[in-house]
Write a structure and sequence with these properties.
The chain starts with a helix and ends with a strand. Strand 2 and strand 3 form a beta hairpin. The longest helix is centred in the C-terminal third of the chain and has 18 residues. It is globular. The chain has one domain: Alpha-Beta Complex (Sufe protein. Chain: A). Helix 1 packs across helix 2 and helix 3 packs antiparallel against helix 4. By secondary structure, the chain is α+β, with helices and mostly antiparallel strands. Strands 3-2-1-4 form a 4-stranded mixed sheet, with helices on one face. Bound molecules: zinc ion (ZN). The site of zinc ion has 8 residues, from helix 2.
C-alpha cells in the first residue's frame, strides 16, 4: 500500500509540474472560472463542444499541487467524452474523495482518478480536488460568475 501511495504521489507531482492541456483556447464554446478561497486555487476551464461531445478541453490558472494535478488529469480524461460520461465520471470522483478513508476505495470506472484517493484523509484538500470539476460543470451551464467552493 505504501508503494502504491508513493506512486500516486509521484503521479500527482508530475501533473503539477507538467500540467497537461495547460493553455487558453480561442475556439472555446464554454468557459468558467473557479476559485477555492480556502487554499487560493484559481482555475479557468475551457471547453469546445461538438454537439454533446467534448472535442477539446484545456485550463489556465494557479493552484496547489492537488488542484493543478486534478485539473490536468480531468482535462486528459474528458477529451472526446460525451457530456453524460463527464457527468458520470464527476459523480464517481466525488464519491471517491468524500468516502470514508478507512474503507477501501471503490475504484470502478475511475481510471487514473484513483491517484487522488489519498485526498480522503485531508478534508481541506477535497475542495482543491473537486474545484476543476465544479468549474467544468459551471462552464457547461454557461454560468458567468466565478464558481466558489464556499
Ligand atoms: Zn488547493
Amino acid at each position: 500500500m505504501d508503494e502504491l501511495r508513493e506512486l500516486y504521489q509521484e503521479m500527482i507531482l508530475d501533473h503539477h509540474k507538467n500540467p497537461r492541456n495547460f493553455h487558453g483556447m480561442d475556439a472555446a464554446s464554454h468557459a468558467a472560472e473557479g476559485y477555492n478561497p480556502l487554499c487560493g486555487d484559481k482555475v479557468t476551464v475551457y471547453l469546445q463542444l461538438d454537439r454533446d461531445t467534448i472535442k477539446d478541453i484545456s485550463f489556465e490558472g494557479s493552484g496547489c499541487a492537488i488542484c493543478t494535478a486534478s485539473t490536468s488529469v480531468m482535462t486528459e480524461l474528458l477529451q472526446g467524452k460525451t457530456l453524460s460520461e463527464a457527468e458520470a465520471l464527476f459523480g464517481r470522483f466525488r464519491a471517491l474523495v468524500t468516502s470514508d478513508p478507512g474503507e477501501k476505495p471503490d475504484q470502478a470506472g475511475l481510471g487514473k482518478l484513483v491517484i487522488f484517493a489519498g485526498v480522503r484523509e485531508y478534508p481541506i484538500r477535497i475542495k482543491c480536488a473537486t474545484l476543476p470539476w465544479h468549474t467544468m460543470q459551471a462552464a457547461l451551464e454557461d454560468k458567468s460568475e466565478t464558481v466558489s467552493t464556499e
